[in-house]
Specification:
By secondary structure, this protein is α+β, with helices and mostly antiparallel strands. The protein contains 7 helices and 12 strands.
Length: 232
Amino acid sequence: MKIQESDPKSLLLAKGLPVPAWSVARTPADARAAAERILADGNDKVVIKALVLVGGRGKAGGVKLAGSAAEAEQVASAILGMQIKGITVGKVLVAAAAEIVKEYYLSAVLDRKSQRIILMGSAEGGMDIEEVAATRPEAIIREAAHPHLGLLAWQARRLAFRMGLGAHLKDAVKIAQGLVETMLVNDADLVEINPLAVIREFGADGNPVERLVCLDAKITLDDSAQIGRAHV
């Protein structure tokens, strides 16, 4: 079972992972109010995304930027009610537009053949990972979590270094282990961050700082596990 982008972010946040703040709006007025709060915090722009359980939102016009609260209201008005692959958009996600320095891909997926949770990472974030795997399989790095102990710290460090995340090692390890924990706690068969991004922000002293964040999230839950829970 797929769940919408705002819900996976909540599950990752519950594990203490770095997820930028967001709001969900069901009306243009709600989107305007959310944008006002975000822009008041010193952000230059907001991003507005259609919340639908299909891919290709950007290509369909379901992801747009706005530089003011009024523009955010106009953009939300255009996105709400539109059809994306036959699905009507009933709500949008509003968040600060991030200044992305570098994008990565990271996911935890249930491999039923080996009966292990496999971490898959790549420095080719923001792209169609299936295409990367098909054309440049060497760009995909894999690490199998321990069947009882989860992803061990040394495994997470090795994954991070191989992905080129040595400069953000502490956060990368926390995120990688957090994906496995999120997967186990929620009976998921996929927890995906694409992109996992290094973003540039400005600190209280006005100097730029870079940090690693879960910018976009996708989680699918195991339907069989949910049925089993309902009968416990």
